Amino acid sequence: MIFIVDDDDDDCSMLWQAFQKHHPGCLLFGFSDGQELLDHLADYYDVPDLIILDLNMPVMDGITTLKRLKHSSRFRTIPTVLLSSSFETNHNLRINELGPGALRFKPTNYSEFVQLTNQLYPAETVSGFNSAKAKG
After folding, report:
1. Fewest CB within 10 A of the end CB: N or C in the chain?
2. For residues 43 and 50, is the Cβ–Cβ distance under 8 A?
């Protein structure tokens, strides 16, 4: 199960399509910001195998969301990746304080999104087909 947290509909759509086509066994849930994700996690028992967070979002950004996840004993071990189209040294320092290597450049086209899904979720980890989108 993968949670995708991004306010950009186009990026979500490409990431969603890449997972569905190349990893059809993934169960996908989408959220438009970090607060929506945290509200969902508080209300439901499901814990994802992976969280993909956009760095820059309204309401609650990716760094704040990651910080809250890492301070929770229930969620701190969930692999989490932050995507950004631009990096600032300040962002790298804040993210590295919370855990190593989670920041990646956001893909700019479909083939790059496919590459990202293959890196984050190898084909041998999934079976069957099921996808859903959480409503906030």
Report:
1. C
2. no
43 neighbors 95 (Cβ within 8 angstroms): no
Q: How far is CA 111 from the centre of its chain?
A: 18
pLDDT attached to residue 130: 36
What are the strands, taking DSSP E only, across the chain? 2-5, 28-31, 50-54, 80-84, 103-105
Structure tokens at 4: 């995708």
Give the range among 11-20, 57-66, 94-103 with minimum mean pLDDT.
94-103
Could you tell me which of 89, 68, 91 has the C-alpha nearest to residue 80? 68
Domains of the chain: residue spans and CATH: 2-120 (3.40.50.2300)
Mean pLDDT of the chain: 80
Closest to 21 (Cα-Cα) out of 124, 132, 134, 131? 131
